[in-house]
Amino acid sequence: MFVISREQAICLFYAVPYNKENAEKYTKKIDEMEDVDICYSRNQKKPRLLCTRTIYANLFDIHLYPSGSRQEKTDEEIGQSNQEVGNRKLEIETTPQLKQFLNAAYLSEENELA
To answer: What's 41's DSSP letter?
Structure first.
């Protein structure tokens, strides 16, 4: 599923091409308005501008868009943590740890080693 960022949704709402200048210009317009935010109900490609009280009162039906800058940071953090996990060496110190690893990696639940 493709996720549309808040900045992309704002450009879509104002029917302008998505680029850095338009994203900054129209995001600033929405941020200056009080008690409203850009959101969607079922289709992310149909952004709506609603009162924040309405949005937070209907969180199961109405969803906010993730910020693009926040998403980029999150992707970087995920990449760093994945790299850290990949760099760690698996250390098995006891026989029960070895059995648990082998059971998890190679056997189904019904055929576990005793």
So the answer is: S
Tell which residue, 55, 58, 74, has the closest CA to residue 66. 74
**Residues near 4 by beta carbon (within 8 Å), at least 6 away in sequence:** 12, 44, 45, 65
pTM > 0.85: no
- DSSP-H helix ranges across 1-114: 6-13, 20-32, 52-57, 68-87, 95-106
30 Cβ neighbours under 8 A, 6+ residues apart: 10, 36, 37, 38, 49
36: which strand partners? 51
Domain boundaries, the chain: 6-64
Cβ atoms of 103 and 95 within 8 Å: the answer is no
What was the pLDDT predicted at 78?
61
- Closest by CA to 12, choosing from 3, 2, 22, is 22
